[in-house]
Write a structure and sequence with these properties.
Two copies of one chain form a homodimer. Chain A is an alpha+beta fold. Chain A is built from eight helices and 15 strands. Chains A and B meet through strand 1, helix 1, strand 6 and helix 5 of A and strand 1, helix 1 and helix 5 of B.
């Protein structure tokens, strides 16, 4: 990871290698922050509006002060310009500010695109399933900085020789991966867990629903046991950074490689270039 | 809240009103931090050893670099001296550091004791129950900075006119409050949820078990439905900051006021003065 640029609301562009967050910021002390990760292609943040909408929604669910999207959008532009990097990843953080004299603050971090993505796409992801039970209704679907469980799950998956975790709900129902949504295909139907399960409504998931429909697939959103995924003709994940990423195994059970993931990845790239 | 002093490992005492945390610290970005809250009486941090032990355990469960307790202890002493306040609250944070060149870092924040504690103790807490279902085994019992759910629960409780939330597990089983443990009494028996439920092993909870036994109470740790608590002869919470705090209602159902909470609070204060 290289942190290419950092912008803070009220302070503008600041040195990314100097401390920028107050130690009593509520996002640091208690994970009371909302965030978004946006892929940037050719200098343009892809689907920024949708990400800002979700940031607003997450802030509301987290009981944070409301997000005013326009200054955040300007901060993103400034940070991108400061980075000088047209193909990169922008992370937007929204915090309520300090405990004393709280002032809501946006942080925009620009980083490089992870170097191993195309290698990973060619090989396909190995997933390790982690039973997490029910998603609490209070914060289901919210993109908060309280991500410790997600990170421990990824760490556990890596210790088991996999690339990423796959969260399962009560009864072995497929939920999502820690930082992406999950999909699989049987014939011309693409299956993906329903948002009613409290999973995150991925921005890329939303676009892939559209792209898939245009490509002639049916999209079925529902409550599916893990066996549906492992018996599929192919499987993949979707997220802003990794885009459409094939899955080739879950818990060492191999999953076939198909062509839908590649088609959708091409469709997504066409959209992002448009 | 007043932030009286701030100390950072490798940097010593720093200005509490200047940014001190890097924007790409993993604790800020993803809630990957462990923390402890310690009450300080007469300049002495109460039960600091137990808190440092738990910090080490939380760091291990969160897959953070191991905590070396001695430098952290020295940092606590320095921060307390810098604060000039003998009766206060120390918060210790342990983070893995930045994404780039990660260096594990301890932050020690000294704050004033909340001003409303004795008023609250005299009146007694109103609790509002929040069903959270199962606690995920991966992070149950870990004190991490991924506290958004806890904070939203407190906010929800306050909107409903209560002081604090009470987490219930599947089937209405009593778990804990967002920042304290829960207790109630029938005759000479004190009931408190078992740590097997994945709740936090409160340092104050541990001491209160000892104090209660010395005072002649039996302590029963188990899996209890909410009805056991609401039908109790008295109820209270325990935590480092609020100590022993009577509960006078759950979801508007009044709970009797008894003398055990007061006895235990006196016992705790005697210990802390010893």
């Amino acid at each position: 990871v290289t942190l290419l640029a950092l912008a803070v609301s009220g302070r503008g562009i600041v040195d990314p290698d100097a401390p920028a967050v107050f130690a009593d910021d509520e996002a640091f002390l208690r994970g009371r922050g909302a965030f978004e990760t946006v892929r940037v292609y050719g200098g343009r943040p892809f689907l920024l509006d949708a990400h800002l909408d979700r940031l607003e929604a997450s802030a509301a669910r987290l009981r944070l002060p409301p997000v005013d999207p326009e200054p955040v959008r300007a901060l993103v532009e400034d940070a991108l310009e400061a980075s000088g990097e047209p193909d990169c990843v922008v992370r937007i953080y929204w915090t309520p500010g300090r405990e004393v004299d709280p002032e809501p603050t946006a942080y925009v971090l620009v980083r490089d695109v992870p170097g191993d993505l195309e290698e990973l796409r060619a090989r396909g992801l190995l997933l390790f399933s982690v039973l997490v039970g029910e998603v609490s209704g209070l914060l289901g679907g919210v993109k908060s900085t309280s991500y410790a469980l997600n990170m421990v799950a990824v760490d556990e998956a890596r210790r088991r020789g996999a690339d990423d975790a796959l969260f399962l709900g009560s009864g072995g129902v497929v939920l999502e991966c820690p930082t992406s949504n999950t999909w699989w295909r049987r014939d011309q139907t693409l299956f993906t867990p329903s948002l009613d399960l409290g999973i995150l409504a991925g921005v890329t998931r939303g676009v892939v629903v559209e792209v898939a429909t245009e490509l002639g697939y049916e999209v079925a959103e529902g409550v599916y046991p893990i066996e549906n995924l492992t018996a599929a003709e192919e499987a993949f994940t979707t997220s802003s950074v990794r885009e459409v990423m094939p899955v080739v195994a879950v818990d060492d059970r191999p999953i076939a490689v198909g062509s839908a993931a590649k088609e959708l990845q091409t469709g997504l790239r066409l959209l992002s270039a448009g």
